[in-house]
Design a protein that fits this description.
Chain lengths: ~120, ~240
């Protein structure tokens, strides 16, 4: 019993000394991926892709980049779920605000066009 | 108390998954079991900053959606004249790569910090600060270019007047964050270089023992600045 405890204890002690310790290779891979994804999102503009495909691609590359930065560079992937949820769930409420303001902006443009014609 | 990780018994007995979330929050103790309060507080600050930038981007969305005047095309506005032709958005693309590279060097600085390689950590942090300063200089160039072309918060030569105000507010606020980050980086890099975290020298302001975790907390802030740029790049420059 005491032997197993001693055996299992060593990684914990090591973690205490070194904190978040991951191979350098992982960071280099993520760095490379971020470069590639940024190049892709730049190409969306450079190639002049328009319409729904443009918006989908922009959002896709944006979310992938944001996910990589938060998960690996900011070490969120190795934190306990309590911290992950406490930090990552509240920003979702911003989407509610977005929905409110989309509706508000639609109304504003409607009144502007209805009462002032096409000009401001 | 000040240390990050509890005893062995505590960590091994702790449940994972949703059961772990419930157990951590209902433990009548600190909820973030494996994150020190310094790290948790930085995360909470970053959460509040997320809302600040979220509000800016929502304000931009509202302005752009509600104006009957056409929005200036960012692809043309931010084009640079290189070698006889306009390359769309090229300066912004370079700025993006510079900021991502600075995030990469920062992540490696954190890694070397926990390996207690003082020299490499400080060098990588200084490189990060240099890339950050490059980013701010390029932004200053961009601002100068747009101002000489007649962009003001209340008007611009290409279309909807709100373009100027949202541009200056969003990029200005982000640039301020980068500038503060560069100063923050230089301060921590000096401490690393001097060996403060090896001898646990107490901070002159907080009187707390210096630990290499400070580099990771600094890194969180820096990566956040990069993260915000990802969203600004997508919504303001590409959309």
């Amino acid at each position: 019993m005491s032997e197993t405890t001693a055996h299992a204890q060593s990684p914990t002690v090591q973690a205490q000394e070194h904190g978040q310790q991951h191979p350098i290779r992982l960071y280099l891979v993520v760095w490379g991926l971020l470069f590639v994804l940024s190049a892709f999102s730049y190409m969306v503009d450079y190639l002049g892709i328009q319409g729904h495909l443009r918006w989908t691609l922009i959002l896709l590359f944006m979310m992938l980049k944001a996910g990589l930065i938060v998960a690996v560079f900011m070490h969120m992937a190795w934190e306990r779920l309590a911290l992950v949820y406490a930090i990552l769930l509240p920003p979702l409420l911003v989407l509610v605000f977005v929905a409110l303001m989309v509706s508000e902006a639609d109304y504003t443009i409607f009144t502007r066009l209805a009462f002032f014609g096409a000009g401001p | 108390m000040a240390q990050t990780i509890g005893t062995h018994d505590e960590t091994s007995l702790r449940p994972s998954g949703l059961r772990g979330v419930a157990a951590d929050f209902s433990s009548d103790q600190r909820a973030f079991k494996t994150a020190s309060w310094g790290k948790a507080m930085m995360w909470i600050f970053l959460l509040s900053d997320t809302f600040v930038f979220g509000c800016f981007l929502i304000a931009y969305m509202t302005a752009r959606m509600s104006t009957p005047v056409a929005w200036p095309n960012p692809s043309e506005v931010f084009a640079l004249h290189i070698g006889g032709e306009d390359v769309p958005l090229i300066l912004i693309a370079i700025m993006t790569f510079v900021l991502i590279s600075s995030s990469g060097t920062m992540a490696m600085a954190v890694n070397f910090g926990y390996r207690r390689e003082r020299g490499r950590t400080a060098a990588l942090m200084l490189l990060t600060a240099l890339l950050g300063a490059t980013f701010v200089s390029m932004q200053a160039f961009e601002w100068t270019k747009l101002i000489t072309e007649g962009v003001r918060p209340w008007e611009n030569p290409w279309g909807a007047a709100q373009f100027g105000s949202t541009f200056f507010m969003i990029t200005g606020f982000h640039g301020t964050h980068v500038t503060i980050g560069v100063i923050f980086l230089l301060i921590i890099a000096r401490k690393v270089w001097r060996g403060d975290f090896d001898v646990e020298r107490r901070g002159f302001f907080t009187s707390r023992k210096g630990r290499y975790e400070a580099v990771e907390i600094m890194g969180l802030y820096w990566h956040f600045v990069d993260l915000v740029w990802v969203f600004i790049f997508a919504f303001f420059y590409l959309w």
